[in-house]
Amino acid sequence: MAIRVFHRDTPSLRLPLISKDARFVVWPGIGAWIANMNYVRLEPGEENVPHIHVESEDTIFILEGEGTIQDYTNDVSLPFHAGCAVHVPVGIKHAVKADRGVGIVSVGGPSPADVPLLRKVGALSPDAQAPV
Fold first, then answer.
1. What's the pTM value of the predicted model, to 2 decimals?
2. Which of 25, 40, 43, 75 has the greatest number of CB atoms lying within 10 Å of its CB?
3. Quick check: 39 and 107 in contact, CB under 8 A?
4. Residue 116, H or E segment
5. Is residue 69 situated within a structural domain?
6. Please, which pLDDT band fits residue 131 given cuts at 50, 70 and 90?
7. Number of domains in the chain
């Protein structure tokens, strides 16, 4: 495999579970099984469907806006703003919320790829495997 360049405006997957405008730019669907990069826009008042990455850590860098990361597993709610990095450990039920009157623009994603979640939503076939 060679180096490739991707653009946020031509994602190969959009995932409404994350937001109305969640763009999967680098993910297993293009052959990236370890490092993933999503570009996500949340409108004011929008939030993720609460979810868990059972095999992955999730790191989200906030480019614009401010909001709250809700940790349902530990009953914790933390504010963030542009310039912050949000880290979600493996197995934590969480949701990002644009609940501070402005939208959010972020980049990041689970690492390694959240293959179980991608299979569950039909983005990867049940037999899709990382190359050995």
1. 0.94
2. 40
3. yes
4. helix 115-120
5. yes
6. confident
7. 1
